[in-house]
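Project channel, design review

CF: Before we commit to the Knufia peltigerae constructs, I'd like one complete example in the thread so the newer folks can see what an input/output pair looks like. Taking CTP synthase.
RD: sounds good, go ahead.
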Amino acid sequence: MKYVLVSGGVISGIGKGIIASSTGLLLKTMGLKVTSIKIDPYLNVDAGTMAPTEHGECFVLDDGGEVDLDLGNYERYLNITLTRESSITTGKIYQHVIERERRGDYLGKTVQVVPHITNGIQDWIERVARQPVDDTNEEPDACIIELGGTVGDIESAPFIEAMRQLRRRAGRDNFIQIHVSLVPIVEGEQKTKPTQQAIREVQSRGLSPDLIACRCLEPLIEATTNKIAMFCQVEPTQVIGVHNVDSTYHVPMLLEKQGLIVQLREMFRLDHLTLAPALVAKGQQIWHDWKTLTSSQSRRMHLDEVTIALVGKYTNLHDSYLSVIKSLEHSAMACNRKLNLVWIDASNLEKATMESSAESYHKAWHDLCTADGVLVPGGFGHRGTEGMIAAANWARTKPKPYLGICLGMQLAVIEYARNVCGLKEAGSVELDERTPDPVVIFMPEIDKATMGGNMRLGLRATNFQEKTEWSKLRKLYHGEPSIHERHRHRYEVNPAYIDRLSGLNFIGKDETGERMEIIELKDHPFFVGVQFHPEYLSRVLKPSPPYLGFVAASAGVLEQVISKTHAN
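CF: and here is what came back for CTP synthase:
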């Protein structure tokens, strides 16, 4: 097993996840089978209870694991399916070790950070690294390990020590460390001192980075590269500049141009491995497709634009909707369009309860009315929901393409109930427990007392109903009778109200036929709501069907896209 550790210094949030994903992609293009693991040093067992504005979106896996958003990057770049065990947190590791201690597995020994926590981390990594993650059903050849936070943080110390020991355990030519650091520009000069200090910090912990990835606003000049190499005890070829680019999809190309494939091949001695010809050919095809994608991105300034209004609750931190953004990007590229994403705080659409200025109100409505399509994503809580309902009403009545995800679907149902079916006080028990017409209710099987991991989570089946062949969304799913998508919700459309919502087509239901999964209006350019989160399964080279249809309708090319879908 080959391991690549991606760590960070100076500051957090400098792109370790994209560099880790890009490195994994380059290994995959060489014919290796690649998996990934993310280490988060926080005490939470998983990301499920953290607010999106605190740590970005919570990404959901097939098995229902609620994990860090970087695992979404791994799945999108590597086209693999990970499990909840691919996410390691301090809380998860300590919980595992304490459970073993309570069972008496340590035979009365004093349980300590070293060796019990550090051994627990290494054992976990080795076990998960060998689990199949793609359709080959074979053990991976390489594992990318991303260590969250920055080296030097108190909470990272046990993981750094575990990585030091794992390097010895893995053996020579089987472990590479890429340390990501910041090279700031001060008064026009690229400063290397923060990187020098970061490398000293890593070395003081017993690790010595093999490659230094330098994040900078601009490409590194030769003098900067040489200075970092000299003071950090590496060769200039081991210093890789990762400057800001127009799209994160350019990063693998940027790394490849600076010789990362050559470095990985030499350090891992891959020329001495026998790789399956079929996987090598598949890797070459992946790389060809990726470069074609990158080339189309480079020409996007000359493409027609499609403007999407995202009406949300957490618009101050765009990472709260990272998978949504990526899904829109994938779909825009597939439609040969340049994405113009307009962010609208849903609260600004609420005139009666408006907390912001009149200027914000009018700007929000101007942005909504001038958009080509309206997207209302998932979320929790009351704030901004009346603004989202207003956005759904505008899209339905104008008509403009609309996509509602999870909460966005539920609110579209409430809007329809109020304004078409005469249920003027229709609402959700999440927003008002005393609503006289509870069109959206708490799912009966969910325990209200527990928060963590207590939702309808993971990959679930949705069955298209009879006589729905007209559905635009079903056509985008190749006319399949049943689909599987990932879920994350506690509330659902009330089955008792379905007969009263005449004209609103519930074209998809769960395997029991009782839970509403998809709504679609028949005589509308594109008005779709889904209870699941299709963004979690969108891939760079295979966009999510609901997002693809929505963007295509917004761009005026839906019929062409549907025709192409059926042709394939």
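RD: helpful, thanks. Residues 2-177+241-291 form a domain with the Rossmann fold fold (CATH 3.40.50.300).
CF: The chain has two domains: 2-177+241-291, 304-567.
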